[in-house]
């Protein structure tokens, strides 16, 4: 039985300030599946990235682990917990890309980039619109009991100003956000609060043109 429930693609995207949608816990996959994925969230093999970009580039700090690249190469999936291996295989198998294309009224993405991210205390992601070669970004969250005041929230922006927040997605367990890349698709991740706030964990799926 598939882990991802295709019924989530029957939702209609928001059109302001650009095309995007958020799913509630239980919509993308059952809560018990989300809980099992959170319990088995991979902990090893991450690269620490600290990028403070100038000249309008993206500024961010997190831990990143690539699971599949746009060239079709994948990491050693045999080293992943069994449920995570199934999920990556399902995402890269074809049906997921076709479902997203129907939902967003886009061409099917020729390739995917799939990776895991961990945001520790003080980590953030500054305002940006993603690379030109991306068709979409889908972020799935695995944080039981996460609170808005802990930060780490995805903020949908009306423009490049970090204060122009149009909507906020709290990264609670099983929630997700799907963003269509455009010149106006500004978004950011607010700074994760200091201890004793736990790490913020997520799965990132990018459709590559």
Automatic annotation (TrEMBL):
Domain Fe2OG dioxygenase: 110-209
Swiss-Prot/TrEMBL keywords: Dioxygenase, Iron, Metal-binding, Oxidoreductase, Vitamin C
InterPro entries registered for this protein in UniProt: Oxoglu/Fe-dep_dioxygenase_dom (IPR005123), Pro_4_hyd_alph (IPR006620), TPA1/OFD1_N (IPR039558)
Superkingdom field: Bacteria
Cofactor: L-ascorbate
SMART domains per UniProt: P4Hc
Descriptive protein name: 2OG-Fe(II) oxygenase family protein
């Amino acid at each position: 039985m598939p882990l991802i429930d295709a019924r989530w693609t029957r939702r209609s995207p928001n059109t302001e300030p650009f095309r995007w949608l958020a799913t509630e816990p239980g919509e993308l996959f059952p809560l018990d599946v989300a809980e099992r994925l959170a319990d088995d969230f991979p902990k090893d093999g991450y690269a620490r990235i600290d990028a403070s970009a100038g000249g309008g580039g993206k500024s961010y700090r997190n831990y990143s682990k690539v699971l599949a690249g746009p060239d079709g190469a994948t990491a050693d999936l045999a080293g992943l917990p069994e449920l995570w291996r199934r999920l990556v295989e399902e995402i890269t198998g074809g049906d997921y890309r076709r479902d997203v294309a129907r939902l967003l009224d886009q061409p099917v993405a020729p390739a995917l980039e799939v990776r895991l991210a961990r945001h520790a205390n003080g980590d953030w992601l500054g305002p940006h619109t993603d690379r030109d070669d991306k068709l979409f970004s889908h972020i799935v969250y695995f944080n039981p009991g996460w609170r808005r005041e802990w930060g780490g929230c995805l903020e949908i922006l009306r423009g490049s100003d970090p204060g122009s927040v149009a909507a906020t997605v709290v990264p609670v367990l099983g929630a997700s956000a799907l963003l269509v890349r455009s010149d106006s698709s500004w978004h950011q991740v607010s700074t994760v609060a200091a201890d004793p706030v736990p790490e913020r964990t997520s799965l990132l799926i990018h459709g590559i043109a």
